[in-house]
Amino acid sequence: MQAIPNVDFSPQIPEPTTSGSTLLIVDDEERIRTAYRQLLAAEGRKIEDCGSGSEALRRLERRDVDLLILDLNLPDIHGLEIMEWMVTKHIATAVVVFSGDESIDSAIRALRHGALEFVRKHGSPQELIDTVDRVLHRCRIEREHALMTVRLENSERLHRFLVEQSPDIIYTLDKKGHFIFVNGRVHGLLGYTREELLGKHYSTIVHPDDQEHARFAFNERRIGDRASTNVEIRLQTKTHRVRHFENRTIVAILSAQGLYAAAHDGPATRHFMGTSGVARDITDRKKAEETIAFQAFHDLLTGLPNRVLFKDRLAVALTQARRKGKRLGVMFIDIDRFKLVNDTYGHHEGDELLKSFAQRARSCLRSGDTLARQGGDEFTVLLPDLTSGEDAAVIAAKVLAEVKRPFRIAGLDFFTTVSIGISLFPDSGETPETLLRNADIAMYQIKGRGKNGYLQYAPEMHSGHSMRITLESDLRAALEGGDQFELHYQPQIRFSQGLTIGMEALIRWRHPQHGLMAPDTFIPLAEETGLIVALSDWVLDRALGQLAVWRRQGFTSLQLAINLSPKDFERNDLPERLVGRLAAHAIPADAIDIEITENLLMKEAEKNIDIVKQLRGCGLRVAIDDFGTRYSSLNYLRRFPINSIKIDQSFVRDLNPQNQSSTAIIHAISCIAHSFGLRVLAEGVETEAQRKLLSTLDCDDMQGFLFSRPLAAAEFEDFLTAGAFPSREGPRVC
């Protein structure tokens, strides 16, 4: 039970300012309530008490309690719930929480629920007395203030106060349009004192271009619903120091009506006395509207028109071009290697590059041309009034030349290029959508040809573009089913021993319309669209399942080579994915050769080195495919923990006794690889002469049509069972 404070409970006489109030004490202990009644007794005070929350709710419903002294921990209802109930019931009783819970959280919760004060029971009794006096005094002041406000609203004094303190200019004109009254707001808005304007004509403050428009509002004779309202007029300031708008003006909306006085010959006759009105400053609103309108149609980073405004201008330009029989052009521009800036230096530096490019590109255009930002690093240009398509090519060449100068990024010179697609009206289309689409198609064509150039749209581009979109859709559908894909296996031979040591798994797509498709027709599309990871998962599951079958048949020494895309290495779970699938098919890790492309060595080398180390740590073997075709990466052989390299077929194809350069290259690669303890395999072996030369170059492991084309699983099984190579008289043709 809460201890009663050790104090003198003799009645204390409060200040007169706290008399005439009703207090309700709510506490579950009677002795404490009795103590509080004695402690807070004062002349004119009516003090009541309750022992439970439900009693308090019934008492508060009468809405005549001025102050509630509330304990939070009641037996039936928590004090916070009582305060929440008071809020929902709109009971305006002030609340002081007097609680034995001394935690700061309890005090914070009480104050957040509407308590004016929080007093701890273990504190000084005088603190409670002072708190109650202070709260009652505050309540009385608030009531008096409210009453005073009501009285002021009905007084002439309040009327004059409102006029003078109004944020608007309030004025009265005589019959000739001269000011006979104007409030002080005119000084804050226009810089004139009221004395300077009294007796002056209203035209003194009206912008010269709006004089005729203002004449009707400032000379308004109508009243009621027919009077002028919300007439937009520019008002002219007295000095530059007041406002800093162009032409020293503000924009105001004016409402006015006529003033009349009753004539001596009867109330039916009225004499026109002048006009009264209110002018409200809406300059900030107008500027905000202009800002919003600008943002709706412009790119905030570069200040250029956005795609919405560009299409609108293009539609207008097309209408004019049809009427005048003129040509126009649309350019679609993409900044090459822009992602490299964002990834290397951050988005801030990327934004700076976009702004710098926008400035340079704009300097290459004519005054009537429009440069717009479509989004990201893509820009469009509208070229009206062209004489021929060569005019657009000239401008594109200017843009290419302009971006040859380095951009300053993060304190360094950054060199970039752009790819530009051009479409012409009426040759390439007659609608904004068609022209933009065809310029975009042409831009992607130039990107596919190596970037850094421009290209005009030709109809044959559209068919290739449409086929790509269709092929992407078909590829997604094929991945969902999986039954359109096939795996073929090409043997890998160790000739000196007459052994098939392994095979490379090669995917084929049996397309419903296009027939059997080789990987080079759809793998790049899968990598570009992000579908390559799902495709790799399909290959892994199917190839490992087939290898498990062959191992059960006794072919336990076979090495299975599986190609992985650089996209697979972007996922941190690659080692876990591979190990999980190996376990599912009961395949030992060292039976698998993971083939990676050579350019993976150069892209995010440190990260990829770590992933390769994880793969090797799991027992997997790693090979570099198409070695020697992309970068001089021999230095990476000592850093990447790989097992073998595959000499690209382009070197093998040129291999003959008369071609000393190819022979020297393969010999050098083989010697260096063997010095690192790596296995060397030559791919693309098609002739017996190539086979013999490779054997002399210390390259005994081979793969190619000389031994076998890629075979379906059943055919490969027959190849293994036969135990001998096919004819070596010439290459096998697919």
UniProtKB/TrEMBL annotation:
It comes from Accumulibacter regalis. Residues 326-459 form the GGDEF domain. It comes from the Bacteria. Pfam families: EAL, GGDEF, PAS, Response_reg. One of its GO terms (molecular function) is catalytic activity. The keyword Phosphoprotein applies. PANTHER family: BIOFILM ARCHITECTURE MAINTENANCE PROTEIN MBAA, DIGUANYLATE CYCLASE DGCP. InterPro entries: Biofilm_reg_signaling, CheY-like_superfamily, EAL_dom, EAL_sf, GGDEF_dom, Nucleotide_cyclase, PAS, PAS-like_dom_sf. Residues 22-136 form the Response regulatory domain. Keywords: Phosphoprotein. Residues 1-20 are annotated as: Disordered. This is Response regulator receiver modulated diguanylate cyclase/phosphodiesterase with PAS/PAC sensor(S). The modification 4-aspartylphosphate is found at D71. Residues 155-212 form the PAS domain. One of its GO terms (biological process) is regulation of DNA-templated transcription. Residues 468-724 form the EAL domain.
